[in-house]
Amino acid sequence: MEIAATSTVTVAPQLRRYSPAFSRTIGSLPSLRFNLSRRNFSAGSPTLRVSAGSISAFAADKISPESFLDKRESGVLHFVKYHGLGNDFILVDNRDSSEPKITQEQAVKLCDRNFGVGADGVIFAMPGINGTDYTMRIFNSDGSEPEMCGNGVRCFARFIAEIENLQGKHSFTIHTGAGLIIPEIQDDGQVKVDMGEPILRAEDVPTRLAGNKGESVVAAELVVDGVSWNVTCVSMGNPHCITFGTTGGQNLRVDDLKLSEIGPKFEHHEMFPARTNTEFVEVLSRSHLKMRVWERGAGATLACGTGACALVVAAVLEGRTDRKCTVDLPGGPLEIEWKEEDNHIYMTGPADLVFYGSALLSL
Ligand SMILES: N[C@@H](CCC[C@H](N)C(=O)O)C(=O)O
């Protein structure tokens, strides 16, 4: 299968003032051709396009985000790139079908940071089921399909507001592999998400580690590459293994971790039959945590929303923090609260549009 991708990129509104409109050819391979061009939608302003090494300038036409996404050429995938604290996604308007518009193999190519658009995953906005407004599906950058994505669902909410032309405060009911998720866009543009209840039963996480606190795995020993780590296992629909350090060791200093060495060993550990996301956490205070993440199917990312939720649950279960915490991720902070009243976890953070693009998909 071949993807030829041509990306027309529109600078996000907040960047328009600072980013000169430009375009460039960023790569060309037999299996994946990718042209990137950036357009400035401000009427009348000049836009540059670089094609096959040459640069030409043309006046911006009357394109708007809406008309761009409305295009329906066959074999062309229109998308919008978003990020939540640097955890970045290609968002696809899939509201007219319950089948993803691209395959998992195509998603892998689009996510490639050298030969594709570059992203941690592809997210599809699909028709709702069971009475929900929408369904969200996601492919990781390795093509696998996770049940949920916390940063992704904030991006999803902003994407829906963009394509439905909604302003101000709005909430949506979204069907995901983790059940019902409810994001609400706030007046300041941040998105607060009701992430539902954590799943703690070992078998459901899933982990083969034996439950040591009822059926949950809390501060249990996991030997990874000959080193004994203290881990707590939590599912937010997708599996997470949270560690605050090695058994009997000092508190972790996450900046010192060799994440790309240790991360894959947790991800593929035999104790995690569905693989796992892993959060390495440093406790700064009872309401402030710092973490680095190795994601299942995506590797080291700048942020993980489900991971931030899972680690607050783990920190509370291990008696390390209160239920409301700021979690510092490499890409910035998230506010997380595990409410006692309803047992739900609430996550608040940003989601930002980066650019509009289109990819030519050919078999
Ligand atoms: N970055 C996401 C999680 C994406 C899915 C994850 N890689 C998995 O396979 O479970 C988030 O923000 O939650």
From TrEMBL:
Compartments where located: Plastid, Chloroplast
Family under the similarity heading: Belongs to the diaminopimelate epimerase family.
Highest taxon, organism lineage: Eukaryota
This protein's UniProt keywords: Amino-acid biosynthesis, Isomerase, Lysine biosynthesis
Signal peptide segment: none
Protein known as: diaminopimelate epimerase
Pathway membership, UniProt: Amino-acid biosynthesis; L-lysine biosynthesis via DAP pathway; DL-2,6-diaminopimelate from LL-2,6-diaminopimelate: step 1/1
Class of this enzyme: isomerase
Catalytic activity: (2S,6S)-2,6-diaminopimelate = meso-2,6-diaminopimelate
Lineage: Eukaryota, Viridiplantae, Streptophyta, Embryophyta, Tracheophyta
Any single biological process term in GO: lysine biosynthetic process via diaminopimelate
GO molecular function: diaminopimelate epimerase activity
Organism for this UniProt entry: Eutrema salsugineum (Saltwater cress)
Annotated EC: 5.1.1.7
InterPro entries linked to this entry: DAP_epimerase_AS, DAP_epimerase_DapF
GO CC annotations, alphabetized: chloroplast; cytosol
